[in-house]
Amino acid sequence: MSTRDFLFHKTDANVYVRKCFGVESFTCGTEMVYDGTSHVVATIAVAFPSAPPRKDLEQHVQHAMVLLRHLIPGIACKTFVTPGPEGRSNFAFRYTVPTSLDEVYSWAKDVTFFDDGIQELHAKNSQMNEQHWWHSVDDHYNLELHVSPLAKGWQFSLTMPHCTADARGMLMMLNYFFDFLAAILEGRPQLLSELEWGKEVERLTPPGPFITTLANTGVSPTLPDPTSLVTLLTGSGKAEHGTESVPAQIKASKYWFVPPVDLGETKEGVSRIVRFSSITTAKLHATSKKNNRTITQVVTALQTIAQVEVSLQIASQVSEEQYKEVLDSFYEATHYLIPWNVIDQRSKLFPEECNTFSSLMSTPLQSMDGVELDFPMSPIRGMLRIDKAAKIVQRKVDMTAFWDGLVASIAQAWGDVDKSADAYFLRHCAMEFSETPKNYDNNFPTISSIGDTGRLGIFDSYRPGKHNQSLTIEDIIISMRTRIYALSSTILEYDDKLSCLFSTAGKSMTDESMKLFTDVFEEWTAAIL
Questions:
Q1: φ and ψ at 294, to 5 degrees?
Q2: Contact 25, 33 (CB under 8 A)
Q3: Mean pLDDT lowest for which of 163-172, 215-224, 330-339, 498-507?
Q4: 147 near 154, Cβ under 8 Å?
Q5: H-helix or E-strand containing 298?
Q6: Parallel, antiparallel, or unpaired for β 78-83 and 89-96?
């Protein structure tokens, strides 16, 4: 099957197009089917030692956006749809080379907004999540940047569809934006007259799963025939060709399951952020290292046991039938399933020359991969005691069950994942050839661990304490719009402080039940330290 359509190619004067692939197509579908689900918002709090007047800041931001577009032209794409085989939709990106600097400035003004009103960081991020998103078929550029005042400083909110960028790619892109803005504030801006428009198309990137093969061989990978491709993403995350049945150990598994309870017709989402102090974050790192585990594995375990505990508590208040179903699942389930765990393949698989936006072959904005993890329920049952008559859940903080049972089984599940370039490619083939995700709205959780920005080299020169002469990045929040029953978590560390943002649809949880969950999550965290 030809891959030409998945590589940017000229279709008209100054117009370049390529089809979306894999997770790009999949997230276009989730946004269409589930009211914008998967749209991503990153909000950054910035302090300026010498803040320019608002009018000057608007001009500086637009200047920086023009520079950013020249470096990363994919941000100026629009997504559109064409008819596909058997009635399926083919989503695609379109980029138009500007013919003048005035045209580029017009684009910068179209995608940059200065909002009035002071809001704290999480409130602004939530408002962006609710109000500033769009469908993949809308005639809309693939990003908006909103700038708004804080009590001290300004906050910059970048909103993008997930088909265009992953969370880490957005933060990497914003790092370049603030580099450009800092240079402008310091009086050493790159002159826009020096930019050569038309050359930037060399940095329009292919899909992430194509990068390794393209970099190593110079040609794109061969797509398998969709009629012969059967890719099974098991708990091990391994892609298997030509397999006609699910492996026996997965067939035998019975997953913990909580029947969705529709709490109403509200279209709003519910989210809450847990912020750990630098002291607590250091303790989490120390105890994780002592037990030879990663922060992601430990937070996954804490989220899992908190969600099971809270699900039992909530079910007991819904109805006898709901409580019995959840309780039966607690006792009978053999495994706990997390069907979507994010891997950023950019740093793991791509050659060094494809790792950054200034690389010889620019890194793609979207390099997200997703795998299933499942692990035994028995350690969780060992840490929770149920009084059936009183409908009370009691905790038994058992360090052996937690570290040697739950966390170890999560680490084992991650260890079993096939993280090779071939598996990455095949997983995306499976998403590309699957139907629109109509059965995506389930009650299983999703986890995205973005990582430690310090270790990733993102915003390092703008951290508090670095005394940057132009600007300081005080805080970061990044979230995904969620309108499905799943509880979505985003794990991020900035300036030695870990944060976990949890979100779901308003039909799935209330503000009160979300607070109950985050309280229990924090209590379990304190218990293991």
A1: -95, 160
A2: no
A3: 215-224
A4: yes
A5: helix 295-318
A6: antiparallel
* CB-CB contact of 436 with 30 (8 Å): no
Q: Which two tokens stand for residue 80?
A: 């559109």
Angle value at C-alpha 140, between 92 and 123, nearest 5 degrees: 120
Q: What whole-number distance in Å separates Cα of residue 109 and Cα of residue 103?
A: 10
If we measure between CA atoms, which residue out of 172, 27, 109 comes closest to residue 481? 27
Distance, CA of 11 to CA of 93 (rounded, Å): 12
Sign of CA dihedral 352, 357, 358, 363: positive
Q: Residue 235 has which token pair?
A: 């708990």
By residue count, the chain amounts to 529
Q: What is the C-alpha separation between 491 and 404, in angstroms, rounded?
A: 23
- Measure the CA–CA gap between 492 and 488, rounded to whole angstroms: 13
Model pLDDT, residue 383: 97
Beta strands in 388-445 (DSSP E): 392-395
Q: Is residue 413 packed enough to be buried (19+ CB in 10 Å), middle (13-18) or exposed (0-12)?
A: buried
pLDDT given at position 89: 67
Q: Half-sphere exposure (CA, 13 Å, Cβ side) for 356?
A: 10
- 6 CB-near residues (< 8 Å, 6+ apart): 18, 19, 21, 206, 207, 210, 220
The answer to whether the CB of 308 falls within 8 A of the CB of 338 is no
Query: How many Cβ atoms are within 10 Å of 338's Cβ, its own excluded?
Result: 22
Helix or strand run (H / E) with residue 456: helix 453-456
Nearest to 385 by CA among 393, 376, 377, 397: 393
3-class SS string, 478-514: EEECCCCCCCEEEEEEECCEEEEEEEEECCCCCHHHH
Question: Residue 126 — φ and ψ, nearest 5°?
Answer: -65, -40
Distance CA 306, CA 391 (A): 17
Tokens of 32: 């269409």
Amino acid at 167: A
- Token reading at 523: 């209590």
CA dist 266 and 288 (Å) reads: 39
Tokens of 206: 């292919």
Interatomic CA distance for residues 208 and 369, integer angstroms: 9
The tokens for 527 are 């218990």
| Residue 431 in tokens | 């998403």
Q: How far is residue 70's CA from residue 98's CA, in Å, rounded to a whole number?
A: 10
- The residue extents of the domains of the chain are 4-202
Closest by alpha carbon to 359, among 221, 254, 211, 244? 211
Angle between helices 421-433 and 23-33 (to 10 degrees): 40
What's the predicted TM-score (pTM) here?
Answer: 0.93
Task: For 4-202, give the CATH class.
Answer: alpha beta
Task: Write out pLDDT tens, residues 436-490.
Answer: 565 567 788 999 999 999 999 999 999 998 888 899 999 999 999 999 889 999 9
